[in-house]
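Input.
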Amino acid sequence: MRSRAGFTLIELTVVVAIAGVVLAMGALSLSDFFQRSSARRAAQVFAKDLVTARDYAVRVREPVVLRVYEGTLSYDVVSQDGFTEVLRRRFAGSSADFELSELELDMSGDTLVFSSRGRINMSGAHGALGIAAFSAGEITYEVRFNSLGASKVDES
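Output.
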């Protein structure tokens, strides 16, 4: 008798099903990685932008405002008179720096004002430190900062 070389339809179906399960698990892991990376990077950029805003206020010797727009997931840094834009960050849409699902500044009025000496008025904070939270899906990173803009990034 002559045996036929090759695979049966059942064998091929089992292999394709196993490959599909493995690919689905990999896609979920990759999605979590991108969310974690996006939230962490946004928090790190915010911490750097605090330093930039403080440095600008000290250099030009005038107050600078960092205003967070939670509805549009963005913030900008402008001179207090509003005529000079120092920087702008967007976290949603086609021109986004990073994709986030939520941005929250835990300060009354969602603004930080750096004085001409580089100090943040912390009277709107709910404690000794200000907190900004950056979320992408289930992942949230917090930036805790003091009145000099020194900060620490933590996963919450």
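The chain has one helix and eight strands.
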